[in-house]
Write a structure and sequence with these properties.
Layout: H1 15-46, H2 49-60, H3 62-74, H4 79-102, H5 108-137, H6 142-192, H7 206-209, H8 214-221, H9 223-239, H10 246-253, H11 258-282, H12 288-307, H13 312-340, H14 346-358, H15 360-374, H16 376-397
Helix pairs in contact: 1-2, 1-5, 1-6, 2-5, 2-15, 3-5, 3-14, 4-5, 4-6, 5-14, 6-11, 6-13, 8-14, 9-12, 9-13, 9-14, 9-15, 9-16, 10-11, 11-13, 12-13, 12-16, 15-16
Length: about 400
Amino acid sequence: MRFARGSVLEPLANGDFVRLWLANGLWWQAMWMEMLALGWLALELTNSPWWVQVIGFYRAIPLLIMGLFGSVITDRFKRRYIVWTLQLVNVLGTGLLALLLFWGRLELWHLSVVSLALGASWALDWPTRRSMVPDLVGKARTVDAMVLENVIQGFTRIAGPLAAGYVTAAYGSLGALLVLVGLGALALVLLSGLKTDSRAPSAGTWAAGWAGRQGWASMRASAPIFGVFLITIFMNVWAFPYMNLLPVFARDVFGRGPEAMGWLGAASGGGAIVGLAAVQLSRSKVSNEWLFVAGSLLACTGIIAFAFSGTFGLALLMLFCSGLGQAGFSIMQSSIILVESSDEMRSRAMSTLVVAIGVGPFGRLQSGALAEAWGAQGAAGVMALLAGIGTVGTAVLVRGFLGKR
């Protein structure tokens, strides 16, 4: 299929990109659904916001460890083999939880161990999928590919939470887990069709691959990459932990069931879809870095307003506004790094980004503790305010970060 040269749809002319793109859609659908479905299951098992966030902590903490050493592993193999194997880990993990729940033997520690395994898989899988994109479409079309990726991701941010809410309400947590297994199996079929030989130009050693070496040096030498790294930390530690508290907001703040949890999760996804159009229209007038900062600040503002909205309808509107900003954050987070880094350092630069995301679990613990002491509203609002302050500080203090226009 041919697309007009220069069109944002041009990456779809590459068959391998289309397969990866569709598989990523199933992967994102499962991730957004899993976040809420496992959170609701943890809330049912423990009746505690703290333990809901602890499960979120287990799901995300491998990012920090794998981000340090992940490129040493992934740079040694063809990327299509890596993503297929890690997708299989997801299917086996959710399948195991479904079996334990069906047998009536599921305990919190089972949920914790599988969450760790899923997090470790994601920590290697996500940067590998992203690192494959420039090899498939070329660097000149990388931002277009990220826009397309975020289109499908945006739709799944609506469909995933809604599926988690309505499937859980109708068929219980077991039904939600079985849907996750099915989504993962479909993604495996798509990934099996990849033919690309994409891989790192050279395999890193443990000493060189560790983020304390080449990856960190490359990141620190580039103001755009360093700025993205810092803001990613602030957003993941202080802004995004509200997502894991959505089951608590639905049940304890608004007095509703799993369906409301799904709508809360979907609201920001709806905003992200609209935000994609705004980002696309602004790209020719505003630099990637300015879009990244503006999106981050809008996301924080929306979360603060959501936390103290008081009514379910207003909460949905504020999360929609937050999603508008999250579109700019999400598209430009990877795009800046993929465009600014060399081919040799691409995987390692992406691994430093995984480390930045991997610091986020500590924010989940902080959020859980604050939710126990101040309630979910106070925890989400105060932490999003801190993320906004950190974003402004980075924009002002990292010299050269916003220098491009």
